[in-house]
Structures are given as C-alpha cells and as structure tokens.
Amino acid sequence: MTLAKQRSFTTKTQRKVYRIQAGAQTIALGQQTKIMGIVNVTPDSFSYDGQLKGPDFAHRAVMRAKRLVKRGADIIDVGGESTRPGAKPVGVQEELRRVIPVISALAKWNKVPLSVDTYKADVAEQALDAGAVIINNIMGTKPTKRLIKMVARYNAAIVLMHIKGTPRTMQKNIAYTNVVKDIVSALKHSIDFCLDHGLNRKNIIIDPGIGFGKTVEDNLSIINSLTEFKTLDCPLLLGTSRKSFIGHVLDKEVNNRLYGSLATVAAGIINGAHIVRVHDVKETRQTALITDAIINEG
Questions:
Q1: Is 164 among the catalytic positions?
Q2: Which fold has domain 19-291?
Q3: pLDDT value at position 175?
Q4: Catalytic one of 214, 257, 277, 285
Q5: pTM of the model
Q6: Which candidate in 164, 243, 257, 285 is catalytic?
Q7: Catalytic residue flag (residue 243)
Q8: b/e map of 86-116 (b: 16 or more CB within 10 Å)?
Q9: pLDDT value, residue 6
Q10: φ and ψ of 271, to 5 deg
Q11: Rounded CA gap, 42 and 153, in Å?
C-alpha cells in the first residue's frame, strides 16, 4: 500500500482552538500546547522543589520562574500551599506572605501570564491585584460564590480542577461509579455554577485532577479517556508531572520520574490536553513540540 493510500485511512486527533481571557491578556489554546511551569513557594512540596527556605525565598522563587520561562514556559503557576496527599492547610496570611512578593516581582518583569495556585478568595484577590491573571483552583468542583464573582469582576481566568475530598483526605476511601463519567459530571456542575454567577465560558479551563483522590488505575484511565472531556467545551489542563502513579508504574522515586512524566504529557496532548503543568519545562517543551507536530501534520 502506498503512503498516500495509508494516509487516507488515518484519523488525525484535533484539538478545538480556544481563546481564553485572562485579565487584559488573551491566551490562544489549541494549535500549540502551552507549558505551565511550577514554582512552589512551600517547605513541603511532594517533589522537594519548594523555595521557602531562608529570608531570600522570594528572590530565589523569582529566579526559578525566570529560568523556567527561558526554558520554554508559557505560563508560571505560583503556589504557597502544598497539595500533596495528607498535606495540612496553610493560613491565609502565611500563604499571602509566600506568594504575593513573588507574583508582584514577576508581574513587573511582565514576560508571561501568571497563575496563582489557590482556592482561597482572599489570596486570589490579592494575587490578582499583584498581577496574576489566572486562579488555579484545586477545589474546582466546589468553588465559592465569592471566589467566582471576584474572578468575573477581574475578568480573570480560572482553572476548575476536580478533587475528591481535600488534600488531607483525598486518598482515603476512593470510590467512583465510573471515574471519567463522574469527573465529567462534577466539572459540568461546576462550569454551570460559574456561568450562573457571572463568569464567562471564555474564562474557564478544566483539569481532571490527576492524583487528587484517584487510584493509579483511575489516573491511567483518565489520561486514556481525555477525549471524553470535550463535551464540556472548555480547554483542558493536565497535571501529571512527577506524580506517584508514575512512580508506581515505573518503581521510581519522585526525582527519577522525568521519562514517565514526558510519556504522560505526550499521551495527554494526543488525547486533547491544551496546557500541561510541569516541573521539567525544557524537556516537556521538546516533547510537546514534536507531539504537536505529529497531531497537526497535514
């Protein structure tokens, strides 16, 4: 069979193109995968990359963010509270102390859109005032009216992530009727809630919440079934970087999960992910470029 005839039988995966509004910025999603680089301003990150050490923590966090942008990050996500399994919550004032100096400094640098990884309205508001334009809400299936109305007022973007329980309890008593359908249903209710309280669909990104109240098998099933999230008609963020299900499959500790993380990125992009949230930006950028080239071929 000739190559031309072979191609006639090929089904090409297509991602829908979106234009997300994030404050004054418009982010085009779909033609090229966007890389969200992680900056943890915490002492207890599961990946041991937290920057909260010593009085110059903000400076070091800013320098990490700038390195990630140089390596190919399109968005920087700043987090001041660990969301690893079993993590205890952090108070509002402590979270503000951690993240606001970093966001303020990066906003003055003004190179890429800034996201804050928080579910607290008070932290979100001050982060938006400091220059963030995306709220990355891990409690995305239980957003508060105050948070949603505030995000709408700022015309910011929000990531609605699915979680079962809280970081402290999420890995206990995990049970779904059908993991993918249950998550799609929960996210649909969350999207409807946001639309009912003043947020526009162009401000919403969804995240199935890999590792947040899921078993190893659940996580693999979600990645394999990402196309089912297309029914929600919102761009999709995928966060798999260095997570424990990769360690389980490969029998590798957290700092030896790069190749597994890259495999999940490629699979995620092929199945429809628009944004990938990662620690290893340079390697992920190369993986995303070649995967994008494959799915956009022809």
A1: no
A2: TIM Barrel (3.20.20)
A3: 85
A4: 277
A5: 0.92
A6: 243
A7: yes
A8: ebeebeeeebbbbbbbbbbbbbeeeebbbbb
A9: 36
A10: -90, 5
A11: 29
